[in-house]
Amino acid sequence: MTNFVTDYEKEIMESSSLEDLLLVVKRANTLCKMFSEECILKIFDLCDAYWMHNGNPKKPHAMLTSGYCSNGFFNCLEVLKYSQFSNFLAQQLALLIRKEFGNISIDWVIGSPMAGITFAHDVCRALGAKISFFTEKDYTRSKKMLWNRTVIPEGETVLQIEELITTAQTLDNVQEAIIEGNPHPINFLPFIGVLVHRPAKLPVPEYNGRKVISAIEKEIWATNPEDCALCKQGSTPYRPKQNWSKLTSKQ
Ligand SMILES: [Zn+2]
User: Fold this and answer.
1) Among residues 138, 98, 134, which one has the least CA distance to residue 116?
2) Residues 76 and 163 sit within 8 Å (Cβ to Cβ)
3) 223 C-alpha to ligand 1 centroid (Å)
4) What pLDDT, on the 0 to 100 scale, is given for residue 209?
5) What's the pLDDT tens digit per position in 96-110?
6) Domain boundaries, the chain
7) At a CB cut-off of 8 Å and minimum separation 6, what does 117 contact?
8) Which fold has domain 4-57+87-219?
9) 59: CA distance to ligand 1 center in Å?
């Protein structure tokens, strides 16, 4: 019997252009099977949305706009702007959630602006959950979120979805806004779903008592150049946008 997932995984890994990859993923979207993290990273790679230092000091590393050095880089929007990829990745995350938590009842799936809103919507559909909703940026309070368009009925379950987590800050802000903006206590599920989990140090077993379910998990640090282990070993720091081909070794 043919192992369909493996065949699709092979096609994904062998795709050399974005157009080829979109066609493969479009077909793979009908499968409802889990793919390897390597396959998912291949999508990020072909979208020029991912780079990770391999530990070899001869290879350059990234200098962020903050002036900090880093060993990795993700830009989810460059992947999620393709609806086929967003569908596919949402389905992968939904499968991981169902694998871990079975048929748990999920009433609300809530994302945060901007890329997280459309992704959470796709995850909601993939999970067969009831309602997809979102918090908004609070332009009057720095780094705060708002919930003021609807009410979550008492007892209904809430799942938070993010496209990318570096620290707990956005997660906490979203949770705080949902609590503040509703008249009843909120029944948050004991886990959160995220496409890319990239904290400075792994493992992170939970945020605020909620377990992390992620499709991609990588330890990515950012540090002052004076404390950068890669600079000390002779690796050159480059700005990723202007030097993408040097970082990724793509010609
Ligand atoms: Zn450095």
Assistant:
1) 134
2) yes
3) 8
4) 94
5) 999 999 999 999 999
6) 4-57+87-219
7) 111, 134
8) Rossmann fold (3.40.50)
9) 11
Cα of 221 vs centre of ligand 1, distance in Å, is 11
162 CA distance to ligand 1 middle (Å): 28
Q: What are residue 197's DSSP bridge partners?
A: 165, 217
Quote the DSSP letter at residue 205.
-
Span from the CA of 229 to the centroid of ligand 1 (angstroms)? 7
**Cα–Cα distance for residue pair 104/152, rounded to 1 Å:** 18
User: Beta strand pairing status for 222-223 and 69-70?
Assistant: antiparallel
CA 21 to chain centre: 19
Write down the pLDDT at residue 44.
Answer: 97
Task: Tell me what pLDDT residue 45 has.
Answer: 95
Separation CA 193–CA 120 (nearest Å): 9
Longest dimension (CA), the chain: 59
pLDDT, tens digit (0-9, with 9 covering 90-100), for 203-226: 998 998 999 999 999 999 999 999
H-state helical runs in the chain: 4-14, 18-28, 37-46, 77-80, 83-101, 115-127, 169-180, 229-232, 244-248
In the reported structure, the alpha carbon of residue 240 is separated from the centroid of ligand 1 by a whole-number distance in angstroms of 13
Sign of CA dihedral 46, 48, 54, 57: positive
| Phi, psi of 135, deg, nearest 5 | -90, 165
CB 158 within 8 A of CB 190: no
Cα-flanking dihedrals φ and ψ of residue 173, to 5°? -65, -40
Q: Is the separation of the CB atoms in 191 and 209 below 8 Å?
A: no
What pTM was computed for the model? 0.94
